[in-house]
Amino acid sequence: MAEAAILKTQDDDDMAGVKRDYKGNRKETNPGMPKDVVRNEYTDMFESFRDSLDQHHDRRQKIGKVSRDVTALSKKIIFSLQRVRKLNEPIPQNISSEIEKRTKEIKELLATIVDDVAGLRRYQYSMPGIEEFVEAVSFAHYLETQTLITPDQMQAALGDDVPILITPADYVYGIFDLTGEMMRFATAVTALSGAMPSGFMGEEADSGRTILEDLQETSSMLQIVPPIPGKGWKDKKAVMIEQVAKVERVGYGVRVRGNERPKGVGYDFDVGEEKAPVMD
Amino acid sequence: MASNSATAMIDPAIFQFLQSHAEQDIDVNEKLHQITAVLNRQISTAQGYLSRIHSTPTAKIQPLLAQIEKEGIQPAISSIQELGKFASNYPYYKYNQRWSRSVQNLVAVMLVTAWLGGMGSESRPGEQGRLLRIEEIGEILEVPINLTDRDEFHVTIEEYILAMTDLTEELSRLAMNSVTMGDIALTVRISSFIKDLFAGFQLLNLKNDILRRRVDAVKYHVKKVEDVIYDLSLRNLIPGTVGTS
């Protein structure tokens, strides 16, 4: 009892977490300092292992952080791109400048880990941010050119300053995600314009390739090629097929009912061209 | 109206790119499966022979170790070399999970065999209590270790550390059985060795991964041996300490 009382009165202005010996005196601790070890013939070996493992963990942490930031920035690019309303045309200035800024940030972030993912380390650490970046870049590329970006173009998008390999898996899983963005774009623009987006949107809506056809073609390709190992090929494939089906229903809908209301209804809700005065 | 078929959605090169990568992957996996199936069989054989250490008295251990080396380890080493040659053509970390466990198991067999006095070479005869270092493992397997500067097959530090936890587990079992077989000196030797390794393991800063789980288990190996030592010392059965009380 007496000892307990002493324990409470001593140094009671101290923060919690002070280690004490059995008499209640605080113990000296040197946080961060290695414990005093009795060295034996294996100590050196374990110390060198410790250094290697520490480097490995630090590197993984650093890469993980950059990857998360790249993911967040890529998602913002994708959100911006979903405000575009026209296919196969240059992206409007206000959106493209925003995208450029974020792309620059992504490249700067990736430039800080070039050495950490060089050579054999590229496959050692997971970097899901790259896949997300492929999704963003391929979506911009599709909206502007109405074509699927090639692996070479994708690698080139990263630039010579960021020599990080975009693996076949990064590429193809990014393209799986692209189909989701294409679906979102297709349904939104069709709802607003009353026609399935195509390269010849406007006066002759039926004349160019539609986004539905592009989706169908992409989906077929990804069903034909054998799986490339990565995270969840099967699931992504199933989701993609569902997305294409959804756009097919939208396409059917506008064909059957599209003429029942004038095209252009809904343009008032178009947020993509907000307050931009018509310049031409 | 002119169709824009000149710019199709998908460049045929994309198709070829994906097709060839997927097919290459299938081929690589098939070949790896072939090699590792043989390797795992050889390792199982080695592990099977190795299990006899628990019923083989120290005096008769050498022929057994020779057999483990000749019929288990040696064939596995040639498989490892085949694996190394093939796997070095592809990114190491893309496929290493296909063989990492096998490498760990083989290294563990080598560690135990060497510790008991096997795995001797002309330059260095085998002796009881010897821990094969990772560098020696690399020399015996004739593959690099812990590569950081080039993308080739190698034995990683992680695989070696995991194999050391297999060694402490195996020796903790042997500590008990060697008492049964009447070789208490061996038990004492195991005890001091395991404690040294345990002190080493405690130097590692581990994250929540397989390495941590395995290294955490080492304390149970230590405890198992301690219990045996306790039983012995209680009854004054440890040579050299008799009569000290």
Textual characterization of the structure:
The complex is a heterodimer of chains A (280) and B (245). Chain A has a single domain, classed as Up-down Bundle (Methane Monooxygenase Hydroxylase, Chain G, domain 1), CATH 1.20.58.2140. Helix content of chain A is 56%, strand content 0%. Chain A contains eight helices and no strands. In chain A, helix 2 (43-81) runs parallel beside helix 4 (128-145) and helix 6 (168-193) runs antiparallel to helix 7. Chain A is elongated. The N and C termini of chain A lie far apart (90 Å). With 245 residues, chain B is mainly alpha-helical. In chain B, helix 6 packs antiparallel against helix 7 and helix 6 runs parallel beside helix 8. Chain B starts with 11 loop residues before the first helix and ends in an 11-residue tail after the last helix. The model of chain B is unreliable at 1-6 (pLDDT under 50). Classes of the chains: A mainly alpha (280), B mainly alpha (245). At the A-B interface, helix 2 and helix 7 of A face helix 1, helix 3, helix 6 and helix 7 of B.
Give a short overview.
The complex is a heterodimer of chains A (280) and B (245). Chain A has eight helices and no strands.
